[in-house]
From TrEMBL:
GO terms for biological process: negative regulation of signal transduction. Residues 63-179 form the RGS domain. SMART domains: RGS. Signal peptide: none annotated. Keywords: Lipoprotein, Palmitate, Phosphoprotein, Signal transduction inhibitor. Inhibits signal transduction by increasing the GTPase activity of G protein alpha subunits thereby driving them into their inactive GDP-bound form. Activity on G(z)-alpha is inhibited by phosphorylation of the G-protein. Activity on G(z)-alpha and G(i)-alpha-1 is inhibited by palmitoylation of the G-protein. SUPFAM superfamilies: Regulator of G-protein signaling, RGS (SSF48097). This is Regulator of G-protein signaling 4. It comes from Certhia brachydactyla (short-toed tree-creeper). The gene is Rgs4.
Length: 210
């Protein structure tokens, strides 16, 4: 904003906490238009009249299971992971969930190979952090893929998210802006800083759905 000293103050700081919370809430209602929703394409779209209640959001703090099995909770968590450059973990988990719904035996092998090549192999484009034992066992499972061939790897990644990124998510604006009343985390001494932080985070989410 210094470069435009003759112009009005930069508008980024004019948003209130209420504005930010409203924008994030609105975005999550439309979350089925984001990238992650491609794996949920068969699900009905959320009605524009449906509202995300405080009770629903508070349940996300009870467990990671509650969070990622809620469409809009999953959207918020995925956006948070993307801000930390670790979205491959939730993408792998979602891919495994979809894989386990495969009904045609003929499709198991090509689907399993696609997940393996994308997330587990040495040259994986979105390699997840697995210990050598789990990685080797999963590689062996590729010889004769079954619906449970990724179960152990999926559990390891779930535990990793549960103990690490999930805890940070609950302390981040991605969650706090939805579960708390406007201004609850914005005292006089840090209000401007929190508004800026909330805007940055919401901008990150919005950019994914553009």
């Amino acid at each position: 904003c210094k470069a435009l000293s003759a112009s009005p103050p930069c508008f980024f700081f004019s948003f209130s906490a209420k504005d930010m919370k409203h924008r994030l809430g609105f975005l999550l209602q439309k979350s089925d238009s984001c990238d992650y929703s491609s794996s949920h394409g068969k699900k009905e779209k959320i009605s524009s009249s449906q509202r995300l209640s405080q009770e629903e959001v508070r349940k996300w703090a009870d467990s990671l299971e509650n969070l990622i099995h809620h469409d809009r909770g999953l959207a918020a968590f995925r956006a948070f992971l993307k801000s930390e450059y670790s979205e491959e973990n939730i993408e792998f988990w979602v891919s495994c969930e979809e894989y386990k719904k495969t009904k045609s035996p003929a499709k198991l092998s090509p689907k399993a190979r696609k997940i393996y090549d994308e997330f587990i192999s040495v040259q994986a484009t979105k390699e997840v952090n697995l210990d050598s034992c789990t990685r080797e066992k999963t590689s062996h499972n590729m010889l004769e893929p079954t619906l449970s061939c990724f179960d152990e790897a999926q559990r390891k990644i779930f535990t990793l998210m549960e103990k690490d990124s999930y805890r940070r998510f609950l302390k981040s604006p991605y969650y706090l802006d939805l579960v708390s009343p406007p201004g609850a985390h914005c005292g006089p001494e840090n209000c401007k800083r929190n508004h800026t932080h909330s805007l940055d985070c919401n901008s990150n989410i919005i950019s994914q759905c553009a």
